[in-house]
Design goal:
6 strands, 2 domains, Arc Repressor Mutant, subunit A, 6-stranded parallel beta sheet
Length: 254
């Protein structure tokens, strides 16, 4: 069953083609109906489990899959992993009841670029679909807080001079004319100070345009920094970049 929003996106581009995957018929049909009312979105299909979702992605080549996690035969995490491996042009946004660690982290590691809970409103879902289609991440505020709570708790570093110990880096303030981001002095994986600033702003949920405005540079420059830092840190998307930033303490100062 598929519905289509009338007209193209805001900029005149073709509608974003979405596949919905959820094993609960009422929920699945409700999401399809909701998306069908939103401008710039075309629902191309609906799957009742992960196995069917993988098959339908191969047949329909949607831009984005809205993926439930708890489904029979093939759960949402495994379906996401298979879809991202075989069809990298198709993005996945998780839409689930659960925001616990055992649901969140495996989904992001499997390649999901977005993660929403089912209390999200129509505007939030539409924004998430558009964001991941444009290459951004889409994490609900609740999920971002969960990531922060989990990843900001790191084990104490061994004392300097021990076999596995390394000196703890002290923060290096970034000139206020550039940004309020404060990456640590000893940046991981060869990141430059500017790349760390960009990473901190990504972790704060800013879009490329907002980062460009914050740093007074062009969006093309921002994209170059993002490509470089993705390559250095071996992250695949903005959701993984957020996790990396929190894990390494790279974030904006309050």
């Amino acid at each position: 069953m598929a519905g289509a929003a009338e007209g193209a996106g805001v900029s005149g581009e073709r509608p974003i083609r979405v596949l919905v995957a959820d094993d609960q018929t009422v929920v699945r049909e409700g999401i399809v109906m909701l998306l069908g009312l939103l401008p710039g979105i075309e629902v191309v299909g609906a799957a009742g489990d992960g196995e069917e979702a993988v098959r339908m992605v191969a047949e329909l080549a949607p831009d984005v899959v809205l993926m439930d996690l708890r489904m029979p035969r093939c759960d949402g995490v495994e379906a996401t992993r298979r879809i991202r491996a075989a069809h990298p042009a198709t993005e996945v946004v998780v839409l689930t009841t659960y925001a616990d660690d055992d649901s969140l982290f495996p989904a992001l590691q499997a390649g999901a670029r977005g993660y929403l809970t089912k209390d999200a409103g129509a505007e939030e879902i539409a924004r998430a679909v558009a964001d991941v289609r444009s290459g951004a991440g889409a994490l609900s505020p609740q999920v971002q807080r969960r990531l922060l709570d989990r990843l900001s708790v790191t084990p104490a570093a061994p004392a300097p001079g021990t076999p596995s110990g390394h000196p703890v880096a002290s923060p290096v303030p970034v000139p206020q004319s550039q940004s309020q981001s404060q990456p640590p002095a000893a940046l991981p994986d060869g990141l430059t100070v500017r790349e760390a600033e960009v990473l901190a702003l990504i972790a704060d949920g800013l879009s490329n345009a907002e980062i460009a405005g914050e740093l007074f540079v062009s969006q093309a420059t921002v994209k170059t920094h993002i490509n470089n830092l993705f390559a250095k840190t071996a992250v695949r998307d903005r959701a993984q970049a957020v996790a990396y930033a929190f894990r390494h303490g790279i974030r904006r100062s309050s």
